[in-house]
Design brief:
Two copies of one chain form a homodimer. The first copy, chain A, has 333 residues and is an alpha/beta fold. The first copy, chain A, has eleven helices and eleven strands. In chain A, strand 3, helix 3 (77-89) and strand 4 (92-95) form a beta-alpha-beta unit. Chain A is globular. The interface between A and B is large, with 41 and 41 residues.
C-alpha cells in the first residue's frame, strides 16, 4: 500500500490532459489530495493549494505522487532534483510512468539512504498465486465493456462512492495504474505474468463480510482481441455476483483496431454472463453504464432511456446522471 | 531458435516418468534426438544410442537438452559438472526446468567464456508486441479443451505429422516448454506478460502461404478459471480458421479444481466458436479429439463412435486411432 495522503507532483505538465492521474485522485479521493507541486512552466492547475515540500509535510503528506505524464518518456533533470529532495525530506515516491523510478540511480540511492520507498505502480510487487477458484464470501461487482476505455473504472468508483454515501460496505478494487494511485493499492493486472492473472484477481478480492461489495475495476473487453485474456481473468478470478455492461456509443470502431466493430449490448450480455457463470453460477447482469461524454444532454438522456427500454436493465451514465440506479440494482442480490 | 539436433541429457532420472520431455522429443522429432546422455543411477532409457559428449559432437549435435525433471528443484553438482563440460566442448544448453540455467553462476560463466547460449524455455526471450488483430494470410487450427491437459499438444503434433505425411504445408507452433524443446522454437505463453499474450500468439503464427496450416498448441481451457485468460489469448491472437474440441472423458473434476466440473462438448463448442468468431468470422468447429488413454480399447472405440454420432463431427483419438479424420476435416476449409 502507498502511504496517504499525497502531495501531487505536476512538474511542468503542459496542460490538464497531461495531469489525468492527478485529476482522478483529486476527484475520487479528495482527502488524499492535500496539495499540488508545480514547477516553472506548468500549464495544469488542480485548483487545490500549491504547497512546498515542507508545507506538505507539515500538513501530513506522506507520499509525493507523480500524477502527470512526462515529456519524451524521460524523467528530466529538473524533475529529478525535486524528487530527490522529496526523498531526503521524508516522502515516499509513487509513479505510474513507463520509465520506472527504480531505474533512476539517483532516486534509488536517495531512497535507500533515507529509508524511503519507491512505488512503481505499473510493476507487480507481489508474487501472486495460481487461482484456486474457491468460492469466497462477500459480494463482487465487475463492469465488462463492449470495448476498452468505455468508463469501466469510473463506473466502479462511482458505485463505490454511492454505496459509501448510503452507509453500505463497499471497496473499490483497482486493477490499473490510475486506480492504484488514486486509492493507494491494487494489482497492475496488465503487467502480471499470464499464469497468475486470475490468481492476482482472487488475491485482490479476498473473503469479506456477506454484505460487503467489492467493485472490481474492469480492463479491456472480451471482444477486444488485444486484451481479452486480461478481461477473462477478471471474469473468472473475480467470480462476480453482478455484472454491469459498459458502453460508449460514439465509437467508429474498436479502440486501436480499425477492422473491428463493437459488439451489441445483447452479445456482450450473453457472452459475459455465460463465461461468468463458470466461476459463479448465480452471477447476474444487473445494469448498464453508458459513457455519454461525447453526446449532448438531450441526446444522452434519450439514448439511456432507449437502451433501458430495449435491454430491460437499469441504465445510467454514472458521471452525467449518477450511479444510484446501479447501486439500487445490487441491493436485491 | 534452439540449434538442432540434440543430445538428450537424462542425468540420474529415477524413471521414465521423469524423462517426459525427452520422450516427447524422441517420439515427435526423432531426427533431433541423436543420442542420450545418462549418468550413474539413471533409471530412464529412451532406446536411442548412449553417446559421450565427444561422440555426440562428432555426430553433429549442437545442443544438450535437459529433457528430464530434476530432484528437489535444484541443479545438482553432479549435473553441473556435465553441463559445464558440454559448454566447454561447444554445446548450447536448453532446459525447461523451473530453476533456470541463467541463475547458475558456473553455467553463465562457462557459456560466456565459450561463446555458447543458455536457453531457458520457460522464459520469453522476445519483447512481444501488442496484438493488432489484422487478418493474416495462411490457415490456423487450434485445439480448445474441456479442461487442461486433455491432449491438446499431442493433437496438434499428430495433425502436423499427418499433414507432413500427406505432403501438405504445415507447421506445429509450440506455446509451452515441452513443445518448444521438441521443435526448437515457440512462445512460452504462460510466462508472457498479460498485455502481450495475444500479440505473442500473432508473432508465433505470422502470414503464410494460403494453403499452409499452423497447428497452434492449445493451453488451459476457457472453462478452467485459473488459466482461461491464456486460452482466450490463443483464441483471439491465433484467429483460428478451424477449432478442434479436446476432451478427456474420465476426469472426476477439472484439473486442480475439485469444485469444478468439465463442461459438455456442446457448451465448449458454442462458447469457443462464438469467441473465435470475434477474431475470425469464418471460423468453424471441425472435429473432436478425445484422449482415451485411460479407457480399454473397446470402450474407447465405442465412446468415439457415440461422440461422433451425437455431435455430428469427425471424432478420433489421434494417438490411439490416428489424426487422419481431423486432417480430412481441414481439407475443405
Amino acid at each position: 500500500m502507498i502511504r496517504t495522503p499525497y502531495l501531487l507532483f505536476l512538474g511542468d505538465a503542459p496542460d490538464m490532459l497531461a495531469a489525468k492521474v492527478a485529476i482522478g485522485i483529486r476527484d475520487w479521493r479528495p482527502e488524499n489530495a492535500v496539495g499540488q507541486f508545480r514547477m516553472d512552466g506548468c500549464g495544469a492547475d488542480l485548483g487545490i493549494p500549491d504547497l512546498s515540500l515542507d508545507e506538505a509535510l507539515e500538513q501530513g503528506c506522506k507520499t509525493l505522487v507523480v500524477g502527470v505524464a512526462n515529456r519524451g518518456g524521460v524523467i528530466s533533470a529538473a524533475w529529478k532534483e525535486v524528487l530527490v529532495e522529496a526523498l531526503q525530506k521524508g516522502f515516499d515516491l509513487a509513479s505510474g510512468l513507463h520509465n520506472l523510478l527504480r531505474d533512476e540511480d539517483e532516486l534509488v540511492a536517495a531512497a535507500r539512504v533515507n529509508g524511503r520507498t519507491l512505488h512503481d505502480v505499473r510493476i507487480p510487487s507481489v508474487a501472486y498465486p495460481i487461482a484456486n477458484g474457491k468460492k469466497r464470501t462477500g459480494k463482487r461487482c465487475l463492469t465488462v465493456g463492449t470495448d476498452c476505455s468505455v468508463g469501466k473504472m469510473y463506473t466502479a468508483m462511482a458505485m463505490d462512492a454511492e454505496m459509501q454515501k448510503r452507509g453500505m460496505k463497499s471497496t473499490f478494487r483497482a486493477t490499473g495504474q490510475t486506480g492504484i494511485l488514486i486509492t493507494g493499492g491494487g494489482v497492475p493486472l496488465d503487467a502480471v505474468i499470464a499464469d497468475f492473472m486470475a490468481g492476482a484477481v482472487e488475491y485482490l478480492t479476498p473473503d469479506n463480510d456477506d454484505d460487503h461489495w467489492d467493485h472490481i475495476e474492469g480492463q479491456g473487453s472480451l471482444f477486444h482481441v488485444s486484451y481479452s485474456g486480461v478481461t477473462m481473468a477478471l471474469v473468472h478470478g473475480g467470480q462476480p455476483d453482478a455484472l454491469i455492461l459498459g458502453h460508449e456509443p460514439t465509437r467508429a470502431h474498436m479502440r486501436g483496431l480499425p477492422e473491428y466493430q463493437q459488439p451489441s449490448l445483447e452479445d456482450l450480455r450473453d457472452t459475459a454472463l455465460a463465461l461468468a457463470k463458470v466461476a459463479n453460477p448465480n452471477c447476474k447482469v444487473v445494469g448498464i453504464s453508458v459513457n455519454t461524454q461525447h453526446m449532448e444532454e438531450a441526446e444522452a438522456l434519450a439514448y439511456l432511456a432507449e437502451v433501458e427500454d430495449r435491454m430491460g436493465l437499469p441504465t445510467t451514465d454514472p458521471i452525467r446522471v449518477g450511479a444510484g440506479k446501479l447501486v439500487d440494482a445490487l441491493e436485491g442480490i
